[in-house]
Input
Amino acid sequence: MTFGERVERREDRRLLTGDGRYTDDFAPHSAHAAFLRSEYAHARIVDVDVSGALDIDGVHAVYTYEDLEGRFADPLPLIIPHEAIVAPRTQYALAREEVRYVGETIAMVVARDRYVAEDAAEAIRVEYEPLPVAADLEGAAEPDAPRVHGDRPDNVIGAVSQEHGDVDAALAGADHVFDWRFVIERSASMPLEGRAIVARFDEEGGLLVYDSTQAPTGVRAGLSLLFGLSLEQVQVVAPDVGGGFGVKVIQFYPEEVLVPLAAHRLAMPVKWTEDRREHFIGSTHERRQIHDVTVGLDEDGRIVALETSFLHDGGAYCPYGLIIPVITAAQLPGPYKLENYRFDFRAIFTNTVPTSPYRGAGRPHAAFVMERVMDRAAAELGLDRAEIRRRNLIQPDEFPYDVGVSFQDGGPTVYDSGDYPGGLELLMREVGYDGFAAQKEAARAEGRTLGLGIACYVEGTGIGPYEGAAVDVLVDGSVTVASGMSSQGQGHETIFAQIAADDLGVPLERIRVTTGDTRRLGWGVGTFASRTAVVAGNAVKKATREVRRQAAELAARMLEADPEDLEFAEGTVRVKGSPASGIPLGQLAAMANPLRYAFGEESAVAALLTRKAYASQDVPLPDGTTPGLNAVEYYSPKSGVFGYGMHAAVVEVDRDRCDVRILRYVVVHDCGTIINPTIVDGQVYGGVAQGIGGALYERIAYDEDGQLLNASFMDFLMPYATEVPEPELHHTETPSPNNELGVKGVGEAGTIPVAAAIANAISDALGTPIDRMPISPSQLHELMHS
Amino acid sequence: MIAIALTVNGDRHDIEVEPRRLLSDVLRHDLGLTGTHVGCEHGVCGCCTVLLDDEPVRACLVFAVQADGRAVKTIEGLANADGTLHPLQEAFHRHHGLQCGFCTPGFLMLASTVYKQAASMSDEEIRVALGGQLCRCTGYVGIVRAVRAAAEEA
Amino acid sequence: MKPPPFAYHRPSTRAAVDQLLAELGEEAKVLAGGQSLIPIMNMRLAAPAHLIDINTLEDEPTEPALEDGVIRFGPLVRQAAAERWLELAARAPALKEALAYTAHPAIRSRGTVVGSIAHADPAAELPALLLALGGEVRARGADGSRTIAAEDFFLGALETALKPGEWVEEVSLPAARPDSGYAVEEFAQRHGDYALCGVIAVAREDRVTLVHFGIGPLAVRTTLPAPVTVDDVREALADVDMTDDLHASSAYRRHLAAVLGARAASRALA
Output
């Protein structure tokens, strides 16, 4: 068995030797695109003069909105609609008359190489008429704010409210009621590979696109519609992708439409590789929300009601609808029983880069609010911080547990399984919670300032609608597995191979996995929402099981045995307890495809079998069977499955430098049954590091004119190895009852509670509430010395 | 255009380049050595780190003309001639030192210049020695372990 | 992020550099390590029409040279070479500490000591070190060469006393003296980043000279009697305007300057 084992990754070798293939590595002789992007956060475009660009040697074409026709001239899609959206505004691939954020695409240049393309983009003259700017979320939400979309009465994208229980009544009866405000700043996924697209048409009019995307199947479907081509004529490949974390899910970004269009018009391969500055101003951001919370507690510290009213910064357009605040709202209660819970949020347009989910997707915000509420309430009531959590946790015998508000998929939010009190106790033990007070006191005597913070979360993972898997046994006995989902480094090739290997009794090395290539499997949804292992993993399981059934049936006939008595082992199908009876899987694959005229002995045997079938007045392919050993199966989950975890941070605040050092970071984590502990560890380690970035370093900063102030790696501070500690991991496994593998997602988990845990730790160290994230040393200085 | 001769992984290439062409672009697009990655083009991320006359440099902060007559080593030249992996490559594989793989070549090239000293280093010193290389996937845990493991076997 | 076009020159002698600078005038820039220049060219924030690449100069020293108590750095001595210099710890302990804060290995292997000083970034370590140690810069051009004392060299952020047609052929630092103590303290949010505030302390007899950098357009030099407290440093810098930017408020910089100044002073005195 490989399932559950620390199997080393299948994808590593090519990536270690420079043989990986990322989008920019394809089509070395293609033309290159560059874009002229708006310098203004809000302006009317009076005139665009491209003549200077066209004069430059090596320039193939320059396009502006005027050059777009038909569907290409329509606004880009709104990918996740919601009934509550009142202003479903998305941008045009190239700006039409008005620009609404710095970075919005105005003109596209295609040239011999990227150097010339940039020279040409620089030579385009744009006359702008600046318009009033609404850059800040809170200001933009005011009734008299400048309007991002002038034909709207305000900047509201949509507003949603929902109530579980009776919050007003419960608050009226509460022993204690508090009002607090929590702020989460803007941040971004920031994968090290930016986005990239290569498009080329072949002689038959077919379109092949390489796209550094998290959702190639959707890009394919959209391009087929735009170009009026059949699905088969459009293929999209997400090859090796250098990280995603959410920003590469969006479809469509302007470039994804324009690069294929240019390839079509110019009849040559065209490539666009986003540079880092473009990524900062042309790819989506996330995170900024402002939460006002009213919480009521009884004398014992039980939360009797909680209400949050919050603003979400949507940026200038809403290609992803309301999904981020919707997730925040549904997941804010976390592992706690909130019998009376109400939220209302407004998603607001601002003249900034649009937002879409970034690892955690609304949940880091939710955990930050809920876990700060827990710590602040504990402080107000004089309760121990672990104890107040214990008193509010959902108990193991309460599953399935209905939170009472809608989940992101529109269904109810029903937790499937978990042991939250057990997780918290494990965390307390591992971090040495009981002894910490003494440790803190001893440190204080030496002039050192320590603090400990804990934070819990529940993460809805593995949402629908569906994913698929294609499993094929080849005549050489090897197996191919394909999924429509693309991989951005998570290790899909390895875990899919593990699932298939065990069921088919084939060594791991004999399984080849392809992800994100519509030529292999054109149906699927995409890699996001921690859903791969759950949704695609179970699809692989289903497809493998179908292939197993086919092989068993055939082998049973040949061995004259009952299929129930067969086992799959060592690449053969054999009667249990009788290894000598084994028929190699490859031979069965050949047998299963009569008259395949392939090389090798098996083919001859299969052909003879065909003769035999006819001789006995039978057909070689009886009804209900298919040629070969292969299957395509889909898995569509009824609802999400809910992973959870508890983190603890021990920090030291250097009071002189106002700097925070993380001394220990302890993680208790449960994502159901684990397919590969090494990969789960890696996801959690990486998630925690991103969470630390979000807690202490990474903040996208705009000024009041809507200029992005830190659009470089010099000023947007992603941590190096010198800034993050090695977390201590503890896994527990509470299988999900909702799927056959028992798995839950893990991709985003590590990131979710980190800002909350660190804020709680710093608050503990200083005795000053930290209600804003991230927090810089300079901000800490202000708090400590005001 | 200027004629230059680059020796990359032991192979000499005579090419003509614009003076402004970055070494990273020449390696990737003119010589087809796409293992060197480009993450920021302002010298902060380290994805494009290669060795120039055995010293680690940012290929995005060197003009190709400046490498004229000099020796460049890229990720494609790190494994042994017989195809077996360099100890660092092996260790990155065993210790899950990579996920998406985009930063990996830069880490490996930088680490190849210092890993032999890493056996006597603290984790903190290893982290400083790996400074200037960003990884967005691994949280650096597997990378630090891998460098230590390779050092201890060296 | 591709640099704009430029004409490329690679002289082989210092005199040829002088000649080219004289001919090409303001449109020309000297390219040494390029670790500050090339990023801003890639961002198209700088577009020199001519680059004079001095990396091809022949017979240039690649290591620091110690002579009569002075350490000389030719124009092609890389920061990494300085770091590896066997005399570093004994003869230039302050430089050793400062280099540990200077960027990252792959930048230091290309960046030069002279280039960092000529670039005159007010948040960089090496210009501040030159000032703290009382070093000198030797400038040259078609009209001859001259020596400029550190305190006369830096005029502002990225601004120096170099005249048109001049470039730096050498920087010299006095070697460490046995009767003096040295310390460098710095705070940056990430290891290797430019300092939010840094300070270099040189203690001799009962006085400490502090040079603060990263706090304004120019490094600031003060001399205080030992022992030096946080309040002493705060008071000494009371009239200095501190930069207020995205990463640090001026109040925070003022605080760091005092705290790090006292720490550096006490280490230098120890």
Summary: Residues 197 and 253 of chain C are 6 Å apart (CA to CA). Chain C touches chain B at residues 1-8, 10, 34-35, 38-39, 41-43, 51, 53, 55, 78, 80, 103-107, 109-110, 191-192 (CB under 8 Å). DSSP finds eleven helices and 14 strands in chain C. The longest strand of chain C covers residues 167-174.
